[in-house]
Amino acid sequence: MLRKKKLSGNGAGSLKPLPESNLYVVLIHFPVKSKKGLPIGSALTTIDMHDIARASITFGVKGFYVVTPYEDQVILAGQVIDHWTKGVGGTLNPFRKSALELIRVTGTFEEAINGMEQERKEPVVTIGTSATAVPGSITAEMLRRKLENRVSHALVFGTAWGLADELLDTCDYTLAPIFGKTGYNHLSVRSAVSIYLDRITNGR
Q1: What is the DSSP letter of 19?
Q2: Nearest by Cα to 162 from 140, 134, 183, 141
Q3: Cis peptide before 39 (omega within 30 of 0)
């Protein structure tokens, strides 16, 4: 009879130290698109914070930046992070604590990029994402090869209906969109992050 391996904590096993990473994830709440394609700001969703942080630590991301200019949203994000990293949440679930310790909150995209530059002392290459095809976009495999150099790379995602054109146009590259087997193409942002990180890491 096979012996079942006993898992510690909440069944996640033991966390191993991650190798040095040069990949960051950025979640933008302004400027993003409305359903009509107009630039808007969106509200923070705490489940996005949790799930993207968990995906980030799973795939060895260096840091996860949440970008929102709205003070009430910054306060909310801080409360969530503090509960899981400094409060009782971290004591009850140390695996969630480790994941949410990756989150940094900034008011602008530029502040996020500056934070990366200060942390690694390297320039930052920005890679935007979109659910629609953009001419000249790169594949996950191409990005994987780019990660072999030392410079930092920021993989940028938009909430609502995606990154506003004014921000997407400033990115150095755009990642090719995720397509399934049907015409439906509106994944949640946390699903898209997980799929992209798996493709980049494992070459799928």
Answers
A1: P
A2: 134
A3: no
What's the rounded Cα separation, in Å, for the pair 119 and 186? 34
Q: What are residue 25's phi and psi, to 5 degrees?
A: -115, 135
Q: What values do phi and psi take at 145, rounded to 5?
A: -70, -35
pLDDT in tens, 102-122: 999 999 999 999 999 999 999
Q: What angle do the packed helices 46-58 and 71-85 form, to 10 degrees?
A: 50
- Cβ–Cβ contacts within 10 Å for residue 194, how many? 19
Alpha helices in the chain (DSSP H): 46-58, 71-85, 88-92, 94-100, 109-120, 140-146, 165-168, 189-202
Q: What is the DSSP letter of 5?
A: P
39, 112, 46, 134 alpha-carbon torsion, rounded to 10°: 50
What domains does the chain contain, in order, with CATH numbers? 23-177+187-202 (3.40.1280.10)
pLDDT at residue 204 in the model? 66
| pTM of the predicted model as reported, rounded to 2 decimal places | 0.90
Q: Tell me how long the chain is.
A: 204
Contacts for 54 with CB less than 8 Å, ≥ 6 apart: 96, 99
- Cα–Cα distance for residue pair 137/97, rounded to 1 Å: 35
